[in-house]
Amino acid sequence: MLIEKIRTIPDYPKPGISFHDITTLLKDAEAFQQVINVLKVHYQAQSTPIDVIVGIEARGFIIGSALAYALKTGFVPIRKSGKLPAKVASAEYALEYGVDRIEIHTDAITPGCRVLLVDDLIATGGTALAAADLIEQLQGQVVGAAFIINLPTVGGAAKLQARHYPVFCLAELAG
Ligand code: AMP
Prior knowledge:
This protein has 175 residues and is an alpha/beta fold. Helices cover 30% and strands 35% of the residues. It has helices at 23-26, 29-44, 59-71, 126-137, 156-162, and strands at 7-10, 18-21, 52-56, 74-80, 88-95, 98-105, 114-122, 141-150, 167-172. Strands 5-6-4-3-7-8-9 form a 7-stranded mixed sheet, with helices on both faces. A two-stranded antiparallel ribbon has the order 1-2. The longest helix is centred in the N-terminal third of the chain and has 16 residues, at 29-44. The chain is globular, with a radius of gyration of 15 Å. Adenosine monophosphate (AMP) is lined by residues 17-20, 56, 59, 95-96, 119-128, 156.
């Protein structure tokens, strides 16, 4: 079971937060392959093609780039503020534990581009919604959002679905 490969650390990075750590899953060759294969099969079966995968720093890069390779799409990073060298679009967002800003290169998404958004985990949905806003600012179309872990009690996946983004998650855990 994939879910058993995820390590949960209580009270990290601050009291009251249960941190779901995917490094224990990633180091397991079979589990990592299984994650990418399940996502690959799911998205290959969709009628809407994907032009590019957008991964959110930092764990979204690991899953997103492996999936982009498997699906033979391009990969575009959304990074924390100040990391991308060329002209960027930026958006502020609220984390489960804090506030941050994310950025994307303005030339990374062409108008009409069909984008699959990828991250390791969705909690409040603040990060993913800000990422979707950035993609739409550049006139891209968010055709799906994929996460390894959903924390359904925190409510982020429902917020994405309310905006009509199809959400696909491999595991549900308690927030
Ligand atoms: P959110 O914007 O609240 O949906 O938070 C999602 C982002 O924060 C993802 O990039 C996650 O990697 C990280 N994150 C939030 N909560 C947790 C958690 N409980 N365990 C691990 N990562 C988390």
